[in-house]
Write a structure and sequence with these properties.
This protein is α/β, with parallel strands linked by helices. Helix content is 42%, strand content 12%. The strands form 4 sheets. The chain has a 5-stranded mixed sheet, with helices on both faces. The model has no long low-confidence stretch (mean pLDDT 97). It binds ligand F0G.
Length: 388
């Protein structure tokens, strides 16, 4: 209640569109066989090209289902970067998360358009080292949340898919920011500027064995989703759904949110929707840089990120610079940001801190919530804090 601008997250805080709100009024609360589910499955088929849809109550619930069905003790799961809940679920299932990012990934002042790329050579090496039967799947996160909401290129996705399928390994796509990922490909990758977001989404999904997402982000609802054309994967995951989530046609979501998700998936293909947060973030980052504040570049998907190690060079990492910065930002502005650094990492088995790769304060820009003057206010306060 003491927060002036809540920039903690874009998760579940995006404002729904008028059509999403309207759709909620006509939801069908049948326990089994809800009509709302079939609208969702139709939207997934039309927009993303997948035959099988599994609803879940949010993104991490989808991760739990994947972990139960696909990750065995002793497995490894290579990925472009981890997310906190992802890593927790795959490790609880006995797997080990391997992050195989490129040399650009951790540079917070980079100009590389695709810092979220997976390193293809390292991926080949990991498969050779552990053996394909030990690799549960290759995971591509769109966009890499913890290192600044950075996308990967279509080319990188295609190459990762080629390597994975040459060894019979599924490619799993975390599409929590799938529409922003498509938007960045359109803006930044040669050959895509004339394509529609819908075409780019379809092309991305043609390289994917299984998609899951937190519907709280790209689709602006409180829910989650798994989708695939692989009947074998669907058959392995589905039995866990009634155990953890609910019946196959609602999966722990309210049917109102199922309706809104169906609309949200169709609206993702609108260039203005896909680019809404990304353009705010770009403006936010450019203004921070003009004021001399060490914002992370290039601007990413969900938030403006500030590099706390450069903002507060006198604070050692063991004293949580990103946490300290988030607290100082709040005191200077009433803006709630989020620590994305060592505080957010798991402790080791003895309970000791594990230093994070980066120390970032994240200022999220949920869709259809803030105006440019809110952003300008936040920039003004951050600039003052930096000067002092
Ligand atoms: N994957 C990614 C890439 C995410 O960013 C998130 C959530 C999840 C999975 C889990 O989804 O929250 O619906 O269970 N990210 C939120 C955030 C919490 O603030 O960035 P969920």
């Amino acid at each position: 209640k003491d927060i002036f601008l809540d920039m903690l997250t874009d998760s579940g805080t995006n404002a729904m569109s008028d059509n999403q709100l309207a759709a909620m009024m006509v939801s069908d609360d049948a326990y089994a066989g809800s009509e709302s589910f079939y609208k969702l499955a139709d939207a997934v088929r039309d927009v993303l090209g997948f035959q099988y849809t599994i609803p879940a109550h949010q993104g991490r619930a989808a991760e739990n289902l994947l972990a139960k069905a696909l990750v065995k003790p002793g497995d490894v799961v290579p990925m472009n970067y981890h997310f906190t809940t992802t890593k927790a679920h795959f490790e609880l299932a006995g797997g080990k998360v391997l992050e195989i990012y490129t040399d650009e990934a951790l540079k917070t002042d980079s100009t590389h358009p695709f810092r979220g790329n997976i390193d293809i050579q390292k991926l080949k090496d990991v498969i050779a080292e552990y053996g394909a039967d030990k690799v549960s799947f290759v995971r591509m996160e769109a966009t890499t949340n913890l290192i600044g909401g950075q996308p990967f290129s279509m080319r990188n996705l295609r190459e990762a898919k080629e390597v994975a399928s040459a060894h019979g390994i599924p490619l799993v796509f975390d599409g929590s920011l799938i529409s922003e990922q498509a938007y960045f490909i359109r803006q930044r990758e040669e050959g895509y500027s004339d394509k529609t977001i819908g075409e780019i989404l379809k092309e991305m999904m043609s390289h994917v064995d299984l998609l899951y997402l937190s519907g709280r982000k790209s689709t602006a609802v409180r829910g989650g989703l798994i989708a695939t054309n692989r009947k074998d994967l669907y058959d392995r995951i589905l039995p866990w759904l009634p155990v953890y989530e609910g019946f196959a046609t609602y999966g722990g979501m309210s049917t109102k949110e199922v309706e809104a998700m169906a609309v949200g998936i169709r609206e993702m293909t609108d260039l203005n929707v896909a680019g809404a947060a990304a353009e705010f973030v770009r403006y936010f980052v450019e203004k921070l840089l003009e004021a001399g504040v060490p914002a992370v570049t290039p601007p990413g998907g969900l938030a403006a990120h500030v590099d706390a190690m450069r903002f507060l060079p006198h604070i050692p990492q063991a004293e949580y610079p990103a946490g300290a910065l988030a607290a100082a930002i709040y005191l200077a502005s009433g803006v709630r940001s989020m620590e994305r650094g060592t505080m957010s990492m798991d402790r080791d088995e003895q309970g000791n801190d594990v230093m994070s790769d980066l120390e970032l304060a994240r200022l999220a820009v949920p869709r259809r919530v803030y105006t440019m003057s809110h952003i300008e206010y936040a920039v003004d306060r951050l600039a003052r804090l930096y000067e002092h």
